[in-house]
Amino acid sequence: MSPSPSDVLRSVFxxxxxxxxxxxxxxxxxxGGDALVLMPTGGGKSLCYQVPALCRPGVGVVVSPxxxxxxxxxxxxxxxxxxxxxxxxxxxxxxxxxxxxxxRQGALDLVYVAPERLLTAPFLDALDxxxxxxxxxxxxxxxxxxxxxxxxxxxxxALLRERYPGVxxxxxxxxxxxxxxxxxxxRLGLAGGRIFVGSFDRPNIRYRVRAKDNPRAQxxxxxxxxxxxxxxxxxxxxxxxxxxxxAWLCDxxxxxxxxxxxxxxxxxxxxxxxxxxxxxxxxxxxxxFGMGIDKPDVRFVAHLxxxxxxxxxxxxxxxxxxxxxxxxxxxxxxxxxxxxxRQMIDASEAPERQKLIExxxxxxxxxxxxxxxxxxxxxxxxFGERLAEPCGNCDTCLEPVEVFDGTVLAxxxxxxxxxxxxxxxxxHVIDVLTxxxxxxxxxxxxxxxxxFGIGGELSKTEWKSVFRQLVALNLLVVDVAGHGGLxxxxxxxxxxxxxxxxxxxxxxxxxRKVARAAAGAAAELLHDAADRALFERLRALRLxxxxxxxxxxxVIFHDATLVEMARRRPRSLPELGRLPGVGEAKLxxxxxxxxxxxxxxxxx
Length: 604
Ligand code: ADP
Ligand code: ZN
Prior knowledge:
Layout: H1 5-13, H2 22-30, E1 35-38, H3 46-55, E2 59-63, H4 67-79, E3 84-87, H5 93-104, E4 110-113, H6 115-118, H7 121-128, E5 132-137, H8 152-155, H9 159-163, E6 169-173, H10 178-188, E7 194-197, E8 205-211, H11 215-226, E9 231-235, H12 239-251, E10 256-259, H13 265-277, E11 282-285, E12 298-303, H14 310-317, E13 327-333, H15 335-347, H16 352-369, H17 375-382, H18 395-398, E14 403-405, H19 407-419, H20 426-433, H21 439-443, H22 460-472, E15 476-479, E16 485-488, H23 493-496, E17 503-505, H24 521-524, H25 529-549, H26 559-568, H27 573-577, H28 584-599
Parallel strand pairs: 1-6, 1-7, 2-4, 2-5, 3-4, 5-6, 8-13, 9-11, 9-12, 10-11, 12-13
Antiparallel strand pairs: 14-17, 15-16
Adenosine-5'-diphosphate (ADP) is lined by residues 15, 18-19, 22, 39, 41-47, 296, 322-324, 558.
């Protein structure tokens, strides 16, 4: 008799109930149906094929393009007592032969395999001899030629349908746009199956965007006040900046490591390994880092530079909080960032049509940065999903920003740029506007201009915010090739005459309500000091157990499970087994150790 999906969920994974769509998907696939599953990162896609693979007779074959991810998933499954293995180029001939033999003997529940491996004649022959539970095609957008992750071997996966007609196939991806979706259905022959589109909302991520003031200091206070001891990622645009910021954070006492494509391969591998296997490492990285990183307890993703588009932003920030615990997406940005990105697009070799698309994407991103609406609503809107109510978990919800009529201010700013000759940077123009009688202002005779001192109603900081917004609106353009001088944008006429209403947002000087209360996001969930101390002890025990096996701590227990232990303090194995994330295998392996840690008097 095969076990039911909810039995498997409880006994193997230790979870109480399926998330929204999981149950439906799992029932459908377990019953033998094909499916395409679209869910955001962290949405819970893995269970959608792991559970059916365990419920159906035979081995589940999972096609995955990323070796690092494969290893990680296999390790996590083994910890759950699932018989899982990976087949990829990192295995020796002998190891690979053993996996294939076990597969033939029916001694495996799940086999992860790289697509090129799957398509070899010997492997297909081996499959012919096996009872097959299902095929799962992970990162299915790799089949799309328009996407940036295209893998030619993925196209050949279409043969699975003809060769194994009775075996259900489930394709999964976090890329949700329509063209990609159609391509997947088309190329993998999934037209007869069902499509499941999950919500792309990630409610546990708190989105915040701040005006760049002193970015390093802003970052440091964010880390110290809200994420002491937490793991996270800090994204920067350039390799040089990654190195600088990582070194600087280390000096400031934050355990930070750099990661970018310019580093030696071995260094990259070591840094990535430390990020996964140690607690509380901060990775400072370019976008070269992140693909295939499945660490569930990344508590924050910080951007010191603007990402390229909202798609990129959502993908990058989506790496935070896969375990569902409170997490932060935090970004600072300023006028120079906009200038830099615009200039990168202009200078690129791409055809004009492509540049046009990229400019639009950048504008959408800037619209997000400058919005006074709920950020989650703006994000989900962009991905074609409607969120009926403001989310209550982003900076604009927690601390609504004031918008005001900036028509006159814009007019003053633009005409001052014009009068000073369209070559000076914002700092100088603001000096003129605010009537700052400095040497440079007098040197150019700008104290005699009609716009000198006409902007006394705002402070310099407030003017900076206005200028940033005018640049975001394309009314002003920053000349990056030169010295960052500003000139009027092509569509500034109406605004210059004061004939186009301009709405601006008033930036906050200080962050208040939105900041988290306690240091360490997981600890934030524990209000009692004794519980927090216990949580730290459990975390230390977990690290010790993980080190002994050379595995990441989160494959032993997730933070969410440790939080529940600290809160509920179970006294027996059956009680412990009722906590989320404690399945039978883990209870047997680690139950006693954790119970005894919980039984110790606090402070010990
Ligand atoms: P994805 O592959 O979509 O990025 P995962 O499958 O890695 O997401 O799941 C994200 C996290 O959510 C994992 O830590 C997983 O253990 C957890 N999770 C998934 N489904 C459930 C559930 N039904 N109950 C509790 N936790 C779940
Ligand atoms: Zn909101």
